[in-house]
Sequence to fold (416 residues):
Amino acid sequence: MGIVELQNGYEHLMTTKPRIRRNPEEARSLILTAAGKRLEEHGLRGLNIKDVADDSGIKHGTLLHHFGSAEGMRRALLAKLSEELITDMSNILNSDAAPEIVFVELFRLMSQTGQTKLLAWRALEEDSDTVSKDEIPSMHLIEDIVERVAERIKGKDVNLARNLIFLALSAAVGWGICGPTLMGTLGMTSSQQDQFPAWVGEQLTKLI
Amino acid sequence: MGIVELQNGYEHLMTTKPRIRRNPEEARSLILTAAGKRLEEHGLRGLNIKDVADDSGIKHGTLLHHFGSAEGMRRALLAKLSEELITDMSNILNSDAAPEIVFVELFRLMSQTGQTKLLAWRALEEDSDTVSKDEIPSMHLIEDIVERVAERIKGKDVNLARNLIFLALSAAVGWGICGPTLMGTLGMTSSQQDQFPAWVGEQLTKLI
DNA sequence: CCTCTTATTAACAATGATGTCAATAATATA
DNA sequence: TATATTATTGACATCATTGTTAATAAGAGG
Fold:
């Protein structure tokens, strides 16, 4: 770094600044990781190519070389985070754990600020075209999960299973998005707040 | 408008452009209404003072005069929308309607894109300091509502009432934020989707 | 060792958003 | 009517963000 910042008149002594040359996947990965951190810590305004590039230790021109445009970078991040979220959800729903545990885990997952911001970001993206279909990973296994839950229900009611899963998911999402705020206005103590996920699990289990 | 756009050399004929002078509240109201529309239709990027001013039929300098800064305008909008949402929620919860109806109404409220974007926006606002406490309208009546629901419960279980209300609210929020997307990946038909709010109402009523 | 590809970089250009300021005019108030 | 207040406006200044380009150098493959 300092090598190139010599006083004027000594340019002939300047050593060319060494370059790190990464392969494309590595560069893209570095950038998207930094971008994800920025989204968590600084919100959407943090997702500009200059700051993301700085955090990744590269120049913003290089970033543009890899993603084409600032929008391109953002869409890539959106796709990556969406995929990760779906994977996490699937893993939880697909586990052998008891229903109550599953619900608590779902709530825990959605409580992470990263997931909250991801969902909020997606909700804010005005035209749904911005998120092209093929960027949303398909969730083949979800049908298996629905059936597995259905098996625990008397009469193997698939629709009931689907509704229950959806209720759990949307409650978890709502909790992640504005749990603390709502809790506050509802006058809940923090211990009541902590118990809420478990309580939901307990109640929903009753509906099975 | 056209009056001032005469050819050069005729400036002496120019009539001074008439000015509309509004009182401050009216001006602020005009601006925030336009801003709200832009948030719905264009997302966060639509909330810049130039576009909002254009939509309100005023100059952006005037907007700055009333709100101090672009951030000031956004915070004012956030406060206004939050207040409206809380009011709407309170009205629904406070109505005499049967529980199932109440739940359906809550879901309908949250399905409006305006509410979705509001919540998403709030979730994205990085530092919670940005939303100062006094901008969130207090919800005194909520305690009354909780008690009224509790009266319908055997044993007047206030905590149960609170939890139920919160479950309904967070499910409605989750539905508003990513209902369609999740529904799609879960393989629900559109008629199943339409029935979901009513189904939730039915189920939650069982828990009373 | 030579050549080709391309990741990387600095410097610059272009655009957009935010904010400042002095002048003006509408309205209230004396 | 005369004066004070302030909402309004255009023109300008500033800053941040995005994008472009030509030159450079790291590494792959011959």
